[in-house]
Recover the amino acids of this structure.
């Protein structure tokens, strides 16, 4: 928590480490892209199958499009993206910072009169809060597309009807509540993972512990806070 | 070696530091003169590392004062401390090079952070400093590709890149072969002669200590028990110092 406040306070103090921010944005955003896309595509696809099974029992198969779009934008897009990124990026942040801590690289930063929070944590924090919503936009689009393909190609739903059902019931608030979640999940992943790495101790074993904790804690925090954000926006 | 009118560069007054139950430093006093090479010797776990970490502000002592150029540093905030740290360069035991940056950016790190130099300017100075340490054509290698001795020299190049007034060496000759160790000793002497820096080295390598020191201080059980020129330390009558400099397992120093 203190680290979070310090990060925010260093964030408003220029100059920002532009090079580091770009590097981290590539790491968080671009490199996570394939994982997020595959997750979103298959989630959309399986949602279409499952909700079709359910709706068919009372003859509402045409609502599949609506259910897929709402579930993906409001819930599964941000949450699954958050979980995948915390596994991929959170672990990397904790491991890298933890290694830097135990090999005295963080101390070396201090001796070079460079604040490690400003140099290491602020770029990671910014990259996560900027890139997570962007990833979620792609995840939403791909998830909906996955649902569409399964419905139209495999289940034989009328494409025009599917698209109309998707558009008609999708509100702007669905999208932005999902993006707000993504933004908060980005903060959670960066803060927890950087904290775990930054204060790692005890050699290689400690770095391993920090990495595990970073992933477990940020995943749990994402799932728990997801409920409260949803309840708040309800 | 020291004139009568020499100035005190670093003054450590009654420093105490504990980690939990472990009372590591128990009232350390140490004065280092302008341009002097001070070597602190002591066994493993005697608190040498903690002492130099206190001097550069990496560790906050529980009690006591540290003066650098007459300025008390233990009460400074992070930003004021950063200004003081610009006077320092530090060589870490294992080098502590930044894994993610190539050699030249490691050496030029301080220049990039604290000067307006462009890429070529930084690279040029980095190459100069590396050449000073006998390293050529390694600018674009990553730290992982270097041997232990090279890492130490690159780390030293990084420490001197900003032309600091004070250099701190954490075990400069530990963990490298005797030939390179001696080369590093030569480098340390050359640093002092060429750049006239004040330096504090901590080591348990007596050969290195005798070679690079103007004065040697021995840290034992959290206190400085003896300070003197290498000659004085060699002939010191204190049995603890005798046992340590001669490297005997029998004597007043208990091996647990």
């Amino acid at each position: 928590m203190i680290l979070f406040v310090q990060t925010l306070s260093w964030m408003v103090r220029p100059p920002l480490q532009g090079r580091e921010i770009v590097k981290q944005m590539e790491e968080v955003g671009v490199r996570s892209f394939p994982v997020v896309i595959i997750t979103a595509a298959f989630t959309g696809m399986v949602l279409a199958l499952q909700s079709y099974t359910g709706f068919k029992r009372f003859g509402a198969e045409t609502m599949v499009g609506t259910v897929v779009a709402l579930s993906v934008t409001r819930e599964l897009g941000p949450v699954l993206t958050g979980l995948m990124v915390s596994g991929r990026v959170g672990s990397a942040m904790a491991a890298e910072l933890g290694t830097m801590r135990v090999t005295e690289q963080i101390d070396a930063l201090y001796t070079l009169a460079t604040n490690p929070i400003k140099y290491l944590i602020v770029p990671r924090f910014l990259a996560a809060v900027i890139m997570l919503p962007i990833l979620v936009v792609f995840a939403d689009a791909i998830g909906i597309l996955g649902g569409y393909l399964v419905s139209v190609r495999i289940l034989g739903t009328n494409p025009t009807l599917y698209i109309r059902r998707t558009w008609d019931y999708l509100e702007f608030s669905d999208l932005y509540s999902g993006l707000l979640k993504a933004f908060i999940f980005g903060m959670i992943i960066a803060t927890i993972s950087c904290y775990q790495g930054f204060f790692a101790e005890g050699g290689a074993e400690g770095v391993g512990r920090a990495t595990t904790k970073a992933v477990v804690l940020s995943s749990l925090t994402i799932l728990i806070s997801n409920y409260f954000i949803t309840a708040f926006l309800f | 070696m020291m004139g009568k009118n020499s100035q005190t560069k670093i003054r450590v007054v009654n420093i105490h530091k504990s980690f939990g139950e472990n009372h590591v430093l128990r009232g350390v006093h140490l004065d280092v003169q302008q341009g002097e090479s001070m070597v602190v010797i002591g066994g493993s776990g005697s608190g040498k590392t903690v002492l130099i970490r206190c001097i550069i502000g990496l560790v906050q002592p529980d009690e006591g004062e540290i003066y650098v150029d007459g300025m008390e540093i233990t009460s400074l905030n992070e930003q004021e401390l950063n200004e003081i740290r610009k006077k320092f360069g530090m060589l870490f035991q294992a080098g502590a090079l930044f894994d993610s940056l190539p050699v030249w950016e490691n050496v030029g790190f301080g220049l990039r952070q604290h000067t307006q130099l462009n890429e070529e300017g930084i690279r040029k100075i980095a190459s100069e400093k590396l050449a000073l340490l006998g390293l050529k054509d390694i600018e674009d290698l990553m730290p992982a590709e270097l041997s232990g001795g090279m890492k130490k020299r690159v780390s030293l190049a990084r420490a001197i890149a900003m032309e600091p007034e004070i250099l701190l060496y954490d075990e400069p000759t530990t963990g490298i072969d005797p030939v390179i160790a001696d080369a590093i000793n030569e480098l340390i002497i050359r640093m002092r002669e060429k750049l006239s820096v004040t330096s504090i080295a901590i080591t348990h390598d007596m050969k290195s200590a005798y070679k690079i020191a103007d004065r040697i201080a021995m840290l034992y059980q959290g206190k400085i028990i003896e300070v003197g020129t290498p000659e004085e330390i060699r002939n010191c009558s204190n049995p603890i110092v005798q046992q340590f400099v001669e490297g005997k397992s029998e004597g007043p120093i208990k091996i647990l």
Q: What stands out?
A: Chain A touches chain B at residues 96, 99-100, 103-105, 107-108, 110-115, 119 (CB under 8 Å). Residues 2-8+34-233 of chain A form one domain. DSSP finds nine helices and no strands in chain A.
